[in-house]
């Protein structure tokens, strides 16, 4: 009888999940609002730095001189903040991933300040890593006060799902990423979906908040895919493999550039030097190779014939180098959006070289390869590549190309370092 009463008192799975809906919706919505606030603030500052100020000085907005001056100044400003704020704006960004354990909450103000400066100043990094870290820290700090018996995993998954859902404008991206870290591992059927329930609710809240307020879109409006042919299997595999090779070149370069910047020892010197190099790369590759890359890929796709194959290749190479430098000199930021730009430029280069390969196949195939190498997230890479063209006919070809491409990247070093500077595997 005692065991029967205990069983009756134990909450059912459905009741446990229902209790998580409110915190999931709150965390997801708050995560999207923080992302939106940081993005809008960065956009306003970017307009001042790259429009108002150069116009007032009668300097070309994207002249080589202005790009070099602005990126160097951005590095100096970020370095000064990192050097002076409490917690130094978090750990070495080369050692952090997209979803990490919670940071102390008093580190978050400095982290958000340097994120805004980097986004506005033209640094080739996205907002995803620092915003996810900030949202995880705040959700964990506030959540444990509201529910002291709750686990850290709960708040980490809710905040990361809400942020990722907001970043991509859909909860599907959050669910796909979390399935790679939340494994059923021999549990009873449905256990994985039980664990995904609350994060999916947070992802829905984050995605809906961002969609209703900002209307994000990843569709590049490329010419429609004309339909699958046998040769497309070969083309998509070759292009995805080329993207993976370029991504792996960046991955293998990270420990060396990280070591070179660390030899300078002081964050102000490291970031100023990094900013100078980014400015020189911007002067070489043009203004489209600056910033996180999301708006810039839309400018590329709006006029695919506006650049030659060589120019597309130059932009892909410059953006790759800029991503490596930005990720290792101390700038806080994510690697997904710059990697997407690299893939888009590489895919357009492939189409320019062999115009019988449809753009709607070449671009997502290259993005798939670069993202597989840079993020090592299979579902995220497939999803991101697919949403760029919004054509379901391309999906089987991308899935096919992902198989040999994954064999190229699996077991290789990752674009993340241990504290001693050696790469994760």
Automatic annotation (TrEMBL):
<feature type="transmembrane region" description="Helical">
    <location>
        <begin position="310"/>
        <end position="329"/>
    </location>
</feature>
<feature type="transmembrane region" description="Helical">
    <location>
        <begin position="268"/>
        <end position="290"/>
    </location>
</feature>
<keyword id="KW-0472">Membrane</keyword>
<keyword id="KW-1133">Transmembrane helix</keyword>
<feature type="transmembrane region" description="Helical">
    <location>
        <begin position="191"/>
        <end position="213"/>
    </location>
</feature>
<feature type="transmembrane region" description="Helical">
    <location>
        <begin position="382"/>
        <end position="407"/>
    </location>
</feature>
<dbReference type="InterPro" id="IPR014743">
    <property type="entry name" value="Cl-channel_core"/>
</dbReference>
<protein>
    <submittedName>
        <fullName>Ion channel protein</fullName>
    </submittedName>
</protein>
<dbReference type="InterPro" id="IPR050368">
    <property type="entry name" value="ClC-type_chloride_channel"/>
</dbReference>
<feature type="transmembrane region" description="Helical">
    <location>
        <begin position="336"/>
        <end position="353"/>
    </location>
</feature>
<keyword id="KW-0812">Transmembrane</keyword>
<feature type="transmembrane region" description="Helical">
    <location>
        <begin position="154"/>
        <end position="179"/>
    </location>
</feature>
<feature type="transmembrane region" description="Helical">
    <location>
        <begin position="62"/>
        <end position="82"/>
    </location>
</feature>
<dbReference type="InterPro" id="IPR001807">
    <property type="entry name" value="ClC"/>
</dbReference>
<dbReference type="Pfam" id="PF00654">
    <property type="entry name" value="Voltage_CLC"/>
</dbReference>
<feature type="transmembrane region" description="Helical">
    <location>
        <begin position="233"/>
        <end position="256"/>
    </location>
</feature>
<feature type="transmembrane region" description="Helical">
    <location>
        <begin position="17"/>
        <end position="42"/>
    </location>
</feature>
